[in-house]
């Protein structure tokens, strides 16, 4: 197996494994577990797994002082994205939520344009418009039953939080940080959100209660471990190796398998509705993001190169 095939294979595994979020999260919701408890276990288990993996690989987890504040801020953004996405599952089909979440590259482009004055190309604006139309179609996905406005807002905020995380990492001292160490501390600092949200304070008695739910059956434990292993650790490790083999642009394009996987699971496993309007909306969102990711390469494409390639064939 050559390097390119390995990279594509691992990139596909990374994207598909991240798309497994609904497969493990929705049964936990059905068993009565809250998003806060679910994500607390996910983050803690993932931190332990990633810590052990780093030790086995001989990677240092040493933290420098100048990395502390940026890591704390980006960890909160990373965690907020997870929380908002999981909350959106309570209001809309997980497959559609995962598709809207995939609009984060478009939000990254907007942030770079608004905050850093990075010029947005005509292709970028076209992709943003296409994604907007796609999301509008998803909003009216089911006949006479528009999606929950709360669900739409939650998943868009989740996408925005992740976009801020990406920009923050690439515009700070974290840019050159090893990805495993970065993710370890992002998860560690991000888990503080769930410690805070799960802590009930009684002002009158000055007492604290930690309202973490305990899984009541073995399958809940299995789902929690799988939630930390597949959409988190497996996705992270395989994506990093994929980027090393084929580069960030092809790996990002393979990310389109994330919402497709979530959508297939939602329809086949959980009986979520799939209408022609929803299909068109999903295609528009995925196409918009793919075109945006390919933007730099497309700008170098010309009819001259096309004809010269055909002539050589």
Description of the structure:
Helix 1 (3-18) crosses helix 12 (248-254) and helix 5 (94-101) runs antiparallel to helix 13 (257-268). The longest helix has 29 residues, at 218-246. Helices cover 73% and strands 3% of the residues. It is mainly alpha-helical. A two-stranded antiparallel ribbon has the order 1-2. It has a domain at 3-101 and 165-279.
What brief labels describe this structure?
about 325 residues; two-stranded antiparallel ribbon; disordered C terminus; globular; 16 helices; single chain; mainly alpha
Q: Helix/strand-derived class?
A: mainly alpha
Low-confidence stretches: 299-313
The main sheet orders its strands as 1-2
**Ends: how far apart?**
26 Å
Q: What's the number of extended β-strand segments? A: 2
Shape, principal axes of CA atoms = globular
Return the average pLDDT rounded to an integer.
Answer: 84
Order of helices and strands: HHHHHHHHHHEEHHHHHH
Q: Helix count?
A: 16
Biggest sheet: strands, sense, closure?
Answer: 2 strands, antiparallel
Radius of gyration: 21 Å
The percent of residues in helical segments reads over 70%
Strand residue content: under 5%
Any chance you could write out the topology, listing elements then pairs?
Elements: H1 3-18, H2 21-30, H3 35-56, H4 68-88, H5 94-101, H6 104-114, H7 122-139, H8 149-170, H9 179-190, H10 192-197, E1 199-202, E2 207-210, H11 218-246, H12 248-254, H13 257-268, H14 276-293, H15 295-299, H16 303-312
